[in-house]
Amino acid sequence: MKTKLIFLALLVSMCSSPAQESEDIKIISLSTTHTEIIQSLEAQDTLIAVDAFSEVDFPVERIDAYTVTAEELAPLNPDMVIVAFDFNGIVDGLESQEINYVLLPPAKNFEDVYSQISTIGEIVNKKGAASSKVRDMKLEINRILDDANYENVSVYHEIGYSYGIYSVNSDSLIGEIYNELGIVNIANSEEDPFGSGYPALSEEMVIGSNPDYIVVGHSDYLNKDLSIREGWGNISAVENSNVYFLDDTLASNWGTTTVQLVEELSTTFEESAQTNVYSDQLLLISLLFLVIMIYVLTRRNTKQKV
């Protein structure tokens, strides 16, 4: 509750002071997603520090969001700290230091994505740009989803393997994307006791589900050949080379690049579907040719007997 009150109080002060331009606001973004959004709204001048993994092409202080403390941020005197995860007790620390912050956790659906872009727009005084961005994103994502037509296709999406197998279900953004594309996500059937959207799966479950596709959205692997995993070589997706590796930054962010994420996932299934169509056509042509050859040979043998 305190987070919300602090955030709302800051918004009121921003809106009531027209003389304050966006570049006068000093923001620390401890989230690659929200750094991305701020840049897409052309408000990068507000950033005085960003998460170490944020992709920026201008000089700015970089901070390890996993280990930084509020005490270390205080000397920077930010107007706002944006966090996506409460690493290292950062939220309690910010409250103790009386530093304004907003916690914007991973989006669970498209509406969360749009809402967070609007929220960032409010913070950096780019409300109009944020509204335009959201409108354009909705149009493009809806176009992609409307064009998608995947039936009886199943997928296993992996976000972690070495320290346990983790996937995504309907309570996550990527899980919603699969649902909207009409893809059967095998993780939707697994128990998610914490409602995180990222259930833990067993290898037996993945192998037994025999998904048509496997999408890997992380770099937590030693070898991209999934067939070397015990028992995985017989999975349909592995047998048919329907294993795809997403850029882990694209797969883990939920900002303005969500359009690219939806496009990438849709294209993955579309290209494979087309390949399957071509394979089916080739098989049909081969069978037709075989039938014709059998007919010709049969006619020839009949004539010879006569």
SSE blueprint:
Elements: H1 2-15, E1 27-29, H2 32-40, E2 47-51, E3 61-63, H3 70-73, E4 80-83, H4 90-96, E5 101-103, H5 110-123, H6 127-147, E6 154-158, E7 165-166, H7 173-181, E8 184-185, E9 200-201, H8 203-209, E10 213-216, H9 236-239, E11 243-245, H10 248-252, H11 258-305
Parallel strand pairs: 1-2, 1-4, 2-3, 4-5, 6-8, 6-10, 10-11
Antiparallel strand pairs: 7-9
Helix pairs in contact: 5-6, 6-11
Explain this structure:
The protein has 306 residues and is an alpha/beta fold. The chain has 2 domains: 2-136, Rossmann fold, CATH 3.40.50.1980; 148-269, Rossmann fold (3-Layer(aba) Sandwich), CATH 3.40.50. 46% of the residues lie in helices and 12% in strands. The protein has helices spanning 2-15, 32-40, 70-73, 90-96, 110-123, 127-147, 173-181, 203-209, 236-239, 248-252, 258-305; strands spanning 27-29, 47-51, 61-63, 80-83, 101-103, 154-158, 165-166, 184-185, 200-201, 213-216, 243-245. The strands form 3 sheets. A 5-stranded parallel sheet has the order 3-2-1-4-5, with helices on both faces. Helix 5 (110-123) runs antiparallel to helix 6 (127-147) and helix 6 (127-147) packs parallel to helix 11 (258-305). The longest helix is centred in the last third of the chain and has 48 residues, at 258-305. The termini are far apart. The model is unreliable at 1-20 and 274-283 (pLDDT under 50).
